[in-house]
Amino acid sequence: MDFKQTLDNKISDYNLLDHPFYQAWSAGELPVEVLRTYACEYGAFIATIPNGWETINDTEIAAEETEHIGMWADFASGLDTVVSEAEIPQVKTLLQTADELFSEPVTALGALYAFEAQQPATAQSKLAGLQAFYQLPKTVEPYFETHSHNDHEAEKLLERIGALPAESHAVVVQACEQMSAALWNALTGIHDAECA
Questions:
Q1: Angle of helix 3-12 relative to helix 105-116, nearest 10 degrees?
Q2: pTM value > 0.85
Q3: With contact defined as beta carbons under 8 Å apart, do 97 and 183 qualify?
């Protein structure tokens, strides 16, 4: 089985670039208050990413991701908000999904891949939208600048997945699909709460 193709097919069913929330962002159609809610709510998920890397014993990337929590805090601060506990139900579900999947190495690999494989493209799109349409402090940009060319994490995950016994691949694929759906639904929750 070409596990990379299988994983990418699962992700493509929930391609975040196709989500109305990110489409509106890249077109400059999201009000700043909505970006503020996103920064506040989604930041709670960003804070969980190091846990997944720690579960797969990659302390180097875990440390990088811990630094990136600070960059996200700067993004939130540039929007005059702070990261806090999630209140939107779909974001809470995303956090529960992350906690569950990041607790075991095999599921952590699939869940991380669902996020990291999409991150460079979504970061490029969000950064371009911020620069073209929003008059915000430059402190909102570094998180997205850093992640817009951050392909090495997905590649690293694929190497680790490839080294697993073949019977583990179905579990990885299921975790990838579960995380992809949770990420999509979290954006839907933020979009519906703020844009409906």
A1: 60
A2: yes
A3: no
Contact predicate 75/140, CB 8 Å: yes
pLDDT band at 194 (very low <50, low <70, confident <90, very high): confident
The residue behind tokens 């996200």 is: 72
Amino acid at 158: L
Nearest to 148 by CA among 114, 124, 116: 124
Residue type, 174: Q
Q: Which two tokens stand for residue 87?
A: 């209140």
Q: In 42-64, which positions are buried (b, 16+ CB within 10 angstroms) versus exposed (e)?
A: bbbbbbbbbbbbbbbebeebbeb
The two tokens of residue 62 are 């875990």
N residues, the chain: 196
